[in-house]
Amino acid sequence: MTRLYEFRGTRYLLRELSELSGVERNVIRARLDDGWTLEQALCIPTVKQRRAGVVFNFPPFEGTGAGRAAQEIPEITFSEQAENA
User: What's the gap between Cα 55 and its chain centre?
Assistant: First the structure.
């Protein structure tokens, strides 16, 4: 027996929902079995779907992280230059 799931007014097969959301079928099925709503099961990204280094709930911040003032010319010396100077 084929089961249809209603999402936002349209009926879909689980395979179609998986393709639309990018969440694997077995993940959707497991989430529904755990009591998640269909909307949660489809719309909350899996760990695989999150990009490395990006947190979707990262708090806002101010500044660039460059300190008090950016330097036009960096004051960097390397060991070879320091020895020859």
Answer: 6
| Distance, CA of 26 to CA of 39 (rounded, Å) | 16
**Neighbouring C-beta atoms of residue 10, cutoff 10 Å:** 10
Q: Do 51 and 32 meet the contact criterion of CB atoms below 8 Å apart? A: no
Span 12-50, pLDDT tens digits: 999 999 998 888 999 999 999 999 999 999 888 776 655
pTM for the predicted model, two decimal places: 0.54
Tell me how far apart the 2 most distant CA atoms of the chain are, in Å.
82
Handedness of CA 3, 36, 7, 48 (dihedral sign): negative
Residues 6+ apart with CB under 8 A from 46: 23, 24, 27
Whole-number pLDDT of residue 28 = 92
